[in-house]
Specification:
Helices cover about 55% and strands about 0% of the residues. By secondary structure, the chain is mainly α.
């Protein structure tokens, strides 16, 4: 297996109170919760993603990069990867680039070709 390039890992830091509020939303829509909590819909959506995604901790950067690349190729979004591995989306992109050697903005192979 080829070696993985070095990259910077930045831990994900997010408002824990907002995540807890989204976890206890009782089937209320994300937009209604965003209005109620007086935050933007993007922050509320990311908090909901963090609250609903199982967290996985991988200490080895090479294993982390390969896991990110595998999940990305399986069709996962950058936000989901950030929530799952507890690192920022930028770190997910760097990990993908380190593992695959391709830019993260390459053709999106997740979309079906007609």
């Amino acid at each position: 297996m080829p070696g993985v390039k070095k990259f910077t890992i930045t831990p994900l830091q997010f408002d824990a109170k907002l995540v807890d509020a989204m976890r206890a939303r009782n089937n209320e829509s994300v937009s209604n919760m965003a209005k109620k909590l007086k935050v933007g819909i993007g922050r509320a959506a990311m908090a909901e993603l963090i609250a609903s995604t199982e967290r996985v901790t991988i200490d080895d950067p090479a294993k982390l990069a390969r896991a990110v690349a595998r999940d990305r190729k399986a069709g996962r979004s950058w936000g989901w990867l950030a929530a799952r591995y507890g690192i920022t989306e930028t770190s997910c992109r760097r990990a993908y680039e380190a593992a695959t050697g391709q830019p993260f903005s390459s053709i999106d192979y997740r979309k079906a070709v007609a």
